[in-house]
Amino acid sequence: QVQLVESGGGLVQAGGSLRLSCAVSGGTFSTYAIGWFRQAPGKEREFVAAISWNGGSTFSADSVKGRFTISRANAENTVYLQMNSLKPEDTAVYYCAGKQTYRSSSSYLTVARWYDYWGQGTQVTVSS
């Protein structure tokens, strides 16, 4: 059974930073593409960033480009989302998702319904 567990969320002031972690267990981590998505109250879940199985391809939403960086450490079975210059509009529950695949196209990795496994989410709150 593949499990994804997010951590690292919290309350931060605008302009601050957080690093989210997505720890994956129960599968061969190095064969999984991982995506980050977020959902704010009253809004639909939206794509934030994604990374291919080998880290060779990364994608991020326009709203976070230049501020958020996704990376993976296969030896730790973990994907990170470094979030800098946070804004109040970044406030949301952040979810990581995984799919065992060698595909690396944004047509797949940026789409929530394409992923098979999801974590429970971690709350990020940015105060103004």
Structure described in brief:
The chain is mainly beta and 128 residues long.
Explain what this protein looks like in three dimensions.
- By secondary structure, the chain is mostly beta strands.
- 3% of the residues lie in helices and 49% in strands.
- It contains one helix and eleven strands.
- Strands 2, 4, 5, 6, 9, 10 and 11 form a seven-stranded mixed β-sheet that branches.
- The protein is globular and about 40 Å long.
- The model has no long low-confidence stretch (mean pLDDT 97).
Topology of helices and strands:
Blueprint: E1 3-7, E2 10-13, E3 18-25, E4 32-39, E5 46-51, E6 58-60, E7 68-73, E8 78-83, E9 92-100, H1 106-109, E10 117-118, E11 122-127
**Multimerization status:** single chain
Give the N-terminus to C-terminus distance in angstroms: 40 Å
What is the tally of helical segments?
Answer: 1
Rg on CA atoms, Å? 13 Å
Strand content: over 45%
In sequence order, what are the helices and strands, one letter per element? Answer: EEEEEEEEEHEE
**Mean model confidence by pLDDT:** 97
**Main sheet summary:** 7 strands, mixed
Q: In terms of structural class, how would the helical and strand content be classed? A: mainly beta
Sequence stretches where pLDDT stays below 50 over 5 or more residues: none
Shape: globular
Share of helix among residues?
Answer: under 10%
Can you count the beta strands? 11
